[in-house]
Design brief:
248 residues, alpha/beta, Rossmann fold, 2 domains, 6-stranded mixed sheet, 4-stranded antiparallel sheet, 24% strand, globular, binds adenosine-5'-diphosphate, binds magnesium ion
Length: 248
């Protein structure tokens, strides 16, 4: 099957550190591809390269069959890449509905972008859908800053999905969550693959093995292994580099 997203030979270094050093992988449509690796392995930087937040020194992406050299994040968002961040990107002073509304605004035709947000109907409909889907309808008018940690992380996923991306990138969406919130979030992410291709960074290895269709293992900026969960787990190089000290 044709991949929805490919990273080809992506690389960037910061002051002599090869943060990402020639990484190539493919994410199949409507599957969950998870990037794992110890702290500092280059996972978040890889996401920054794919989503345009950091300009690669080499390499490019192929999104839905089209090759893209470096592009700005807003352009890539229009082309279908939605992402959440390891550090939150919610507007804490705005309500839940307002956060979603801003993110959904991309659905409106460009000439409507300057009309008042409350009059944009496509975006408004999308907000309603997301509030239901993410069980946030009861919280629509609360400030995002007043939500529980678990609710905020759920809202971040909803925000990343608001403009109906082709690829949804989530960087450690369960970080700091309770065990039950983590399980709930895993179910939610799995359900999203009906309509979107998911690229995930996740440190909870049990969850990774459970929900991933494919796993990319990174170590010191390089790709160490890439395959279905059982195959990756059995890989001696992965065992040595990662599972030996995965409890970070
Ligand atoms: N903007 C940056 N400037 C300098 N160094 C960076 C920057 N971003 C990441 N790094 C470095 O790149 C390496 C990979 O970091 P990161 O991608 O955050 O790893 P991970 O997400 O796997 O923990 C680390 O050594 C980190 O310190
Ligand atoms: Mg990271």
């Amino acid at each position: 099957m044709k991949p929805m997203l490919e990273a080809r030979n992506l690389a960037v270094s910061f002051g002599g550190i090869h943060a990402v050093d020639g990484v190539t992988f493919a994410a199949a449509p409507n599957q969950i591809t998870t990037v794992i690796g110890p702290n500092g392995a280059g996972k978040s930087t890889l996401f920054n390269l794919i989503s345009g937040a950091v300009r690669p020194h080499r390499g490019h992406i192929v999104l839905d069959g089209k090759r893209h050299e470096h592009m700005r994040p807003d352009r890539l968002r229009e082309l279908g890449i939605g992402r959440s961040f390891q550090i939150t990107n919610l507007f804490f002073e705005l309500t839940v509905a307002e956060n979603l509304r801003l993110a959904a605004q991309l659905l409106e035709p460009r000439k409507h972008w300057l009309v008042p947000v409350r009059r944009s109907t496509l975006a408004g409909q999308r907000v309603g859908e997301l509030l239901e889907e993410f069980h946030l309808a009861g919280k629509a008018d609360e400030r995002a800053g007043d939500l529980s940690h678990g609710e905020q992380r759920r809202l971040e996923i909803a925000v990343a999905l608001a403009a109906r991306p082709k690829v949804l990138m989530l960087d450690e969406p369960t970080q700091g969550m309770s065990h039950s919130d983590t399980a709930e979030t895993a179910r939610l992410i799995r359900a999203l693959t009906d309509s979107v291709t998911v690229l995930l960074i996740e440190h909870d290895i049990g969850l990774v093995m459970d929900i991933s269709d494919r796993i990319v293992v990174m170590h010191q900026g390089r790709k160490l292994a890439d395959g279905p969960p059982a195959e990756v787990r059995a890989d001696p190089a992965v065992q040595a580099a990662y599972f030996g000290h995965a409890r970070s």
